[in-house]
Amino acid sequence: MAPPSVVPALSDTTLRERFEQLRKSFGVPFAVVDLGTGELNHVPAAWLPIDLDVALPVLEEIARRGRPAVVEDCAPLLVLAVPLLPDDDLPCSEVAVATFLTQAVADAEHLAAAAKAVRVELETLQHWALTQPIWPPHAVTQLSDSVCRRVSAEAENKKLRTQLTSVSQHLLQTFEELNLLHRINERLSLSMDDHQLLELAVEWLSEVLPAECLLACMFEASPTGIHQLPRQWIYTGECPLPIDELDQFLDRLGPDAKQSMVVLDQDETSSPTWYYSTVREVISVPIRTGNSVIGWLVAINHSPSARRQSNQFGTLETSLLSSVASMVGMHSGNVRLYNDQSTFFESVVRAFSSAIDAKDPYTCGHSERVARISVLIARQLKCSKEQLNSIYLAGLLHDIGKIGVDDHILRKPGELTLEEFEHIKQHPTLGYNILKGVRQLQHVLPVVLHHHEAWDGSGYPGGLVGEEIPWLARIVAVADSFDAMSSDRPYRAGMPAEKLNKIFHSARGQQWDARVIDAFFAVRDEIESVIHLDRKQLSLDVTEWNVIY
Ligand SMILES: [Fe+2]
């Protein structure tokens, strides 16, 4: 048997602290029994020995119950056992034991009986009893209960403090993550391209993610899933690899690295088979839109920050990178969807416009000219960006109702009969009905319906007067009339400029809004250029135009 230690060789700090509390509270020496070995591992001076062979089963039961208990009560001696409970739910394997003198020793015979009962030498007991205070038995058990409750309460407090620290740390990490995502989200816009998006993501990640290098790239996903190399990588910090080796580097992270998240720590990178000696830690996260991988965010080599002394990437870094990759992928997908929809919408508008021209080939290009002239006049009238875009669209589509007008009337040279004119007058209402179900074209409906109204109320279909006529419709009315009168027809030449100007001057404030006519004459030269020069196709967004003709 190994000799017992001078100080208790308890299994952890918590047990040592508990033993000390017990010893100080009672002021008497406690020995410690290791139930695993069945031996004493600490025997203080002035400790009255006990018969371990007899006591061990009782001590095991006391440890199992987890509460202090009397092992032997043999007046004037009382043996107390206190289980030293671990913090966690592990079984108790160490028990503190002490013997108390519970009454004054009346005579030698009484003491001899007690020595026999607890199986110690009489002489040892006599010597020990001389130095012992008298303890009322109930005081021993009450104090032991009290000490154990205090120890349990302190253990619970410690556990709660640990949990609180953990929750606080988690909250701090979550706050940092949410704060970063919020800051990135605030800056996102549909006009941001993939390159700008990645620059933003990498820049902001570098403020909160302690990595020596942060990298990102995105590309167009091809239908076959095969992507063209090289891709353009954006990075901050010092990249420990040549940039042109990054694609190969991703391949070496594992067979699934291009489709799934990869986290490598120093356990993996210290392996003799690891290829890149300058790379100690890696997190690689794919950027997805829908089911397609369209890029990656990569963090290489942890750089300990002032706040986090870890030298490895942890769950916070992994979570941050994943969240940002999700946001980047989602936004990029939205931008691509928006661009696809814009392209589709523009195609539909152009198709409508072409359909009008095809219906009436003599007026070919009329819709585009009216649209551009309307924009020129509207700019002169200081219309807003939204109004400019609306009036361009409205100009392209204002005669869409002619699709429903009989061809022979539409193409008839010369004067129309009254009946034919009544038929052709239906085209604004027909156009309105064609477009009214298209949500994206609601703002052009007033122009389509009212572009043939006259300021004095003599127009159609509503016979609206003055400012009852929608503002943009008054502008398109001037542009429409100008193009109709100035364009050549197979059966007549376009009206000379002088005559045309005279008509517009004389009908100012009667047929047309005076303010619109003034604006028309202010941009008269530019309008002439629109009519006579070759035209390139323009964007539906007027703010993107450099020239109008
Ligand atoms: Fe018209």
Automatic annotation (TrEMBL):
<keyword id="KW-0378">Hydrolase</keyword>
<protein>
    <submittedName>
        <fullName>Cyclic di-GMP phosphodiesterase response regulator RpfG</fullName>
        <ecNumber>3.1.4.52</ecNumber>
    </submittedName>
</protein>
<feature type="domain" description="HD">
    <location>
        <begin position="363"/>
        <end position="485"/>
    </location>
</feature>
<dbReference type="GO" id="GO:0071111">
    <property type="term" value="F:cyclic-guanylate-specific phosphodiesterase activity"/>
</dbReference>
<dbReference type="Pfam" id="PF13487">
    <property type="entry name" value="HD_5"/>
</dbReference>
<feature type="domain" description="HD-GYP">
    <location>
        <begin position="341"/>
        <end position="536"/>
    </location>
</feature>
<dbReference type="InterPro" id="IPR006674">
    <property type="entry name" value="HD_domain"/>
</dbReference>
<dbReference type="InterPro" id="IPR003607">
    <property type="entry name" value="HD/PDEase_dom"/>
</dbReference>
<dbReference type="InterPro" id="IPR037522">
    <property type="entry name" value="HD_GYP_dom"/>
</dbReference>
<dbReference type="InterPro" id="IPR029016">
    <property type="entry name" value="GAF-like_dom_sf"/>
</dbReference>
